[in-house]
Structures are given as C-alpha cells and as structure tokens.
Specification:
Helix content is 44%, strand content 18%. The chain has 202 residues and is an alpha/beta fold. It has two domains: 30 residues, no CATH class; 171 residues, Beta-carbonic Anhydrase, Chain A (3-Layer(aba) Sandwich), CATH 3.40.1050. Strands 2-1-3-4-5-6 form a six-stranded mixed sheet, covered by helices on one side. Strand 4 and strand 5 form a beta hairpin. The protein is globular, with a radius of gyration of 18 Å.
Length: 202
C-alpha cells in the first residue's frame, strides 16, 4: 500500500502540475472517443496499451471482458454501456480480450472456479464458448485457451448487439464495434475481421 500512496503523491507533485490545463478542461466534463470493455486482469492496462490521454477512453473492466446479453443481468455492465452510448455518444466500442485469460480458462474448465461460486455464475455469460469448443472437438486441443479467448471476444461482440442502445446507434451508423486481442507476451494486438471470420494484425 505504501507504494500506491507514493504513486499518488508523485502524481500530485510531478504529473498534475504539468497537465493542469488538461485536468481543468476535464473537470468541466468528458467526451471520450471510444469505450473499451476489457478484462480486469492486472496485466491489462487499456490506457497504456492505447496511449490514450485522460478523458479519451471510457473503460469498463471485468473478469473475462464479458457483456451479458441484454436482460440476462441488468447491472453495472448494462448501465455502463448504456451511459457510454446514450449520454457520452461514444463512436466506437472495443471488446478487448487477452492471451492467457484466467477467466476464459475457467469457462473451459469450470472445476477451476467451482470454489468461487460468484465467479462461476458470472462466467456462465460465456458458456456458449465452451459449448462450441466441445461440439467442434477442440476442448482439449493444445491451443484450446487461445481459441477460446478469440471465440469469447466474438461472443461478447454478438452480445453487445442485443443491447437496444448499442443496436440503435450501430444501425444508425454512429457507432462502430471492434474485437481486439492483446497478446501480453509480445505486445501485439490482433483485430477480428468479420468478413474473413479471423483475427489479423491491427
């Protein structure tokens, strides 16, 4: 905790004074360019990854970068997405998964999270990933986790479309949806191409 407090003090001492004009503008309101929905994994830092400045990226992080289908879990995720689209009118939403995702590993092997009932219940919002992997005989493949991480991004993009605010904005042409995968070990980012149904370099 001492290191965290020291970081706050360094921000107040060194960073804030150099960006005082920016923070003064931000105090009056926000107008982010995009929303990123990504995993709460401590290795995933959306602002570092995109080099976005404060106020440019509206971020939602949760275990597994999940978006429950509209009506399945009317909670914080649904409210945050609706606020971003309706009130902030973001022009882009990015679903960003990452390599080696522990949440997706729990989707593939539910026994890994059975001692955490809330986590197990939350991961049911990605159960279709496990079902499709099982049906295609890929559940025990050497690259099963990587395939599942990719499949999860696609599933969550599909789930986004079930949210009325997202569907309305997307159909009106003022909102674009993107699927990304961040490869932690290399720093690479791949993006989903819906026409080719594959991930390619960003």
């Amino acid at each position: 905790m001492e290191e965290i407090v020291a970081g706050v003090r360094a921000f107040q001492r060194d960073v804030y004074p150099q960006n005082q004009e920016l923070f003064a503008r931000l105090a009056a309101g926000q107008s982010p360019k995009a929303m990123m929905i990504t995993c709460s994994d401590s290795r995933v830092d959306p602002l570092l990854l995109t080099q976005a400045q404060p106020g440019e990226m509206f971020v939602l992080q949760n275990a597994g970068n999940l978006v429950p289908r509209y009506g399945d879990a009317m909670g914080g995720v649904t409210a945050t997405i609706e606020f971003a689209v309706v009130e902030l009118r973001v022009a882009n939403i990015i679903i960003c998964g990452h390599s080696g995702c522990g949440a997706v590993a729990g989707v593939l092997k539910p026994e890994l999270v059975q001692h955490m009932p809330s986590v197990a219940t939350w991961l049911l919002h990605a159960s279709v990933v496990r079902e499709s992997m099982r049906d295609s005989g890929q559940l025990d493949a050497p690259d099963a986790l990587q395939r599942a991480v990719e499949a999860n991004v696609i599933v969550q993009l599909d789930n986004l479309h079930t949210h009325p605010a997202v569907a309305d904005a997307h159909n009106a042409g003022r909102l674009q949806l993107h699927g990304w995968l961040y490869h932690i070990g290399t720093g690479a980012v791949t993006t989903y191409d819906p026409q080719r149904r594959e991930f390619k370099p960003l």
